Amino acid sequence: MQIAIPIFDQLTALDCVGPYEVLQRLPGATVAFVGKEKRNVRTDNGFLGLAVDYTFDEISSPNVILVPGGVGTRAFLDGNDHEIITWLKNAHSTSQYTTSVCTGSLVLAAAGLLTDLTATTHWSAYDTLKELGSLPVADRVVEHLDQRIITAAGVSAGIDMALRLSQLLVDTEAAKAMQLMIEYDPQPPFNAGTVSAAGEQVMERLIQYAEHKQ
């Protein structure tokens, strides 16, 4: 079972590393980090580097595709024939499942894979997802198994999706074993993981921090 994760500059690390920690443990699974060329890419804040180990040409027909998000996804939304878009269209034609985490769904939409389908993404990108022809919903994981597509919301939802993929690819006990193996038992100290729960003061602080990063 070959799982391909395309990576690119300014991706969000946990979008790919979280699901990787689940999926690489499945029996018979291999995970390949793919890209236009073999090189190191830098994550969205520039602090962390990840290595592209295989080119798109070398991994053309993976069983599972997982597209991470991050501000770097915006570079692929201009309608041009970016390598990742072309690869995604071709690879999806033979994949068992094509999936995304966070704003990775924008890349799926830019490739025409989410047209008129409900999908999820980071809450700040709902409008962009809609402009790309999808129907954004505020669910953590959205499945269209007849189209072999699954999208997940922000970073932690990617782990949820990876566990669901484990169930689909193997069985329920395998998924539970993966959950236990990584001791995934989230109990956050605050209830601020959604816009509605966080409130106005938290949103103001978030905007302040985001502006500082620009």
Describe the structure.
36% of the residues lie in helices and 19% in strands. It has one domain: Rossmann fold (3-Layer(aba) Sandwich). With 214 residues, the chain is of the alpha/beta class. The protein is globular, with a radius of gyration of 17 Å. The chain has helices at 13-23, 83-92, 104-110, 126-131, 155-169, 172-181, 195-198, 200-213; strands at 2-6, 30-35, 40-42, 49-51, 54-55, 64-67, 97-101, 118-119, 135-136, 141-144, 149-152. Helix 2 (83-92) links the parallel strand 6 and strand 7.
SSE map:
Elements lengths: L1 E5 L6 H11 L6 E6 L4 E3 L6 E3 L2 E2 L8 E4 L15 H10 L4 E5 L2 H7 L7 E2 L6 H6 L3 E2 L4 E4 L4 E4 L2 H15 L2 H10 L13 H4 L1 H14 L1
Parallel strand pairs: 1-2, 1-6, 2-5, 6-7, 7-11, 8-9
Antiparallel strand pairs: 3-4, 10-11
Helix pairs in contact: 1-5, 5-6
